[in-house]
Amino acid sequence: MSTLAVLPVLLPLAAAAASTLLYRSLRAQRVIGVVATSSLVVVSLMLFLRVWDEGIVVVRMGDWPSPIGISFVVDLFGAIMVVLASITGAATALYSVRGIDKERQSFLYFPLLHVLLMGVCGAFLTGDIFNLYVWFEVLLMSSFVLLALGNERNQLEGAIKYVTLNLMSSALFLTAIGILYGTFGTLDMADLSRRLASTDRTGVVTTLSMLFLVAFGIKAAIFPLFFWLPASYHTPPFAVSAIFAGLLTKVGVYAIIRVFTLMFPIDPGFTRPLLLFLAAMTMLTGVLGAAAQHEFRRVLSFHIVSQIGYMLLGLALATPLALAGSVFYIMHHIVVKANLFFIAGLADRIRGTSDLRSPGRVSVYARAPLIALVFFIPAMSLAGIPPLSGFFAKLVLVRAGLEIGEWAVVTVALLVSILTLYSMTKIWAEAFWKGPDRNEDEPESVERVPPTMVLPVAVLALITVVVGFLAGPLFGVATRAADQLLDREAYAEAVLGPERGSRP
Amino acid sequence: MQVLIAIIIGGIFACAIYMILRRSIVKLIMGLALLGHAANLLIFSAGGLSRARPALVAPGETAPLAPHADPLPQALILTAIVISFGVIAFMMVLVSRASEAVGNDDTDLFTATDQ
Question: Would residue B108 count as lying in a domain?
Fold first, then answer.
């Protein structure tokens, strides 16, 4: 009965093992890739429905009682994240069938993709802080290889930067865990939540919270720790960029939100101004960086940074409405961002270049108007044009900010939204609309875009539209997830049972 | 003893950061390896430094005899060592490939992704 909560980890593990054993047959690996990730979507939706009906689901490994054993704790926020991860994973697997070249596929691309998904799902589900570190390492390890797979000079240089900064972050995370265990004697997040709530050692607690903020901040690419991201995300194949862009930084954001709701609730005197400042600077530097770029994926990479600022903003404002806005923003952002990178891949195939300054060999709009139009949906959603999903996500955050009178940061958020629109129209005009001069020779053959690469793009664009039209009910889901996040005692009680009067 | 270990850990952290900031890419690996060691030593000392027995339950007993050492930090370090071993091994291959591609080991020349 409780296996459902573990399946999002077991399924990718089994798929990775099976496709490694079948390494000779690319066809089998592709079939397993698509089937396993699609069934992961079904499993994660079932898990979500279960958590929706029954509340927090707890699975204790080996039936050891918490906090001695390691447990998986699935609350609504975690379940939503797993659903989003599985959707992105399934879209990437389908896109990769033709989007990734045969050499990379024969060097175990698909098993690595499954392991990446396993790490991401594990990180969203675990209820133990050291276990979270282990899942981070699982997903990082496979992302290192995915990034470097192919051995191009750009990829190797990008991988060096990515690996170095992520290892720094892991070492800091590990250090913080060591101090946390030395001070409070437990690693179970629910138990930590109770012990931290009743401690009077505020100095140690603040130091720890800042160590975690820096460690997760590097992974989430917040200001001023984001420079590895635009240096590496545009180097691997498009499918890999897309799943990185959709999921990896969001694991960092998830960890920040989890730690700063469950363990170190936002302190209005210290962490709130700091997080608000970081959120504003992240939004601003990201979008200004994007304005200066002329490579399709580098523009999008800087926009990832800028969007992370919005998610952080919801956490920093720390009202239930703002936190719900953050959760909704993540729901909208993962789908949109992955889709934009997929479309960048399609445009690159048609134009033959990703450089926005070059006219390319043919105008995308002239050759494939539907693909150009499909770019418009996620791009406008990212900028926050109604009735698409991004509009509602931004609306909630702005409203939450105005409710408590944080004018400055709301102004920044709105300004960044306009600059995002500028970037998106720049991409639209340069990469989709503009084409080579008519006088030039008509290009003899343009590579055809295979339907397996168009289908995931279309489905994700459809999801964006649906999220826009069903914003009400989906925001209800986000609100319930946020309420659950803010109720620390309910989380602790689901894991540990009712609080005892005294503790050893 | 606590103070001595604390100074050693601090020293290793300082060496690690210094090595990472050097321009040679080989020293970058050394720095990252040292950083992992420093974090591991810190966890080790966080469990408390004491002359105690291993946390093993003797035949006929139901609990380990006091005073016994906390086994959890040791398990954590073991996990962390295995992980950092794998990561450093990967990093060494990556660095050798990357310096071949760039033709130099100076990290200031790794600028192909910034253009």
Answer: no
* A354 touches A237 (CB < 8 A): no
The answer to whether the Cβ–Cβ distance between A168 and B83 falls below 8 Å is: no
Q: How many inter-chain contacts (A to B, CB under 8 Å) are there? A: 106
Report yes or no on B115 lying in a domain: no
pLDDT in tens, B102-114: 888 888 888 777 7
In-domain check, residue B30: yes
Query: Does a structural domain hold residue A374?
Result: yes
Judge whether B19 is closer than 8 Å to chain A, CB to CB: no
- Write out the residue range of the structural domain in which residue B80 sits: 2-49+69-102
Average pLDDT, consecutive stretches of 10 residues, N- to C-terminus, chain B (115 residues): 90 94 90 92 84 81 80 89 92 90 82 72
Lowest-confidence region among A413-422, A448-457, B51-60: B51-60
* B15 interfacial to chain A (CB closer than 8 Å): no
The C-alpha torsion from B26 through B28 and B33 to B35, rounded to 10°, is 160
> Cα–Cα distance between B92 and A342 in angstroms, integer?
32
> Rounded to whole angstroms, how far apart are CA atoms A427 and A437?
19
User: Per-residue pLDDT averaged across A117-135, rounded?
Assistant: 94
Work out how many domains chain B is built from and give that number: 1
Q: How far apart are CA A421 and CA A418, in angstroms?
A: 5
CATH of residue B79's domain is 1.10.287
Q: How far is B17 from chain A (nearest CA, A)?
A: 9
Which of A88, A16, A23 minimizes the C-alpha distance to A459? A88
Nearest to A178 among B42, B94, B98 (CB): B42
Domain range enclosing A46: 3-434+449-496
Task: Determine, yes or no, domain membership for A439.
Answer: no
Contact A234, A337 (CB under 8 A): no
Q: Would B79 be classed as within a structural domain?
A: yes
The pair of three-digit structure tokens given for residue B95, joined into one six-digit string: 């660095």
Q: Establish if A503 belongs to a structural domain.
A: no
Task: Report the 3 state secondary structure along A419-472.
Answer: HHHHHHHHHHHHHHHCCCCCCCCCCCCCCCCCHHHHHHHHHHHHHHHHHHHCHH
Residues of A numbered 337-356 whose beta carbons fall under 8 angstroms of chain B's beta carbons: which are they?
none
The number of domains in chain A is 1
CB contact under 8 A, B94 and A177: no
Neighbours of A302 (CB within 10 A): 25
**What token pair was written down for A34?**
């698509």
Q: Is residue A105 part of a domain?
A: yes
Closest Cβ–Cβ partner in A144, A167, A231 for B113? A231
Residue A355 tokens read as 């450089």
CB atoms within 10 A of CB A388: 26
ipTM greater than 0.90: yes
Is residue A502 very low, low, confident or very high in pLDDT (cuts 50, 70, 90)?
Answer: very low
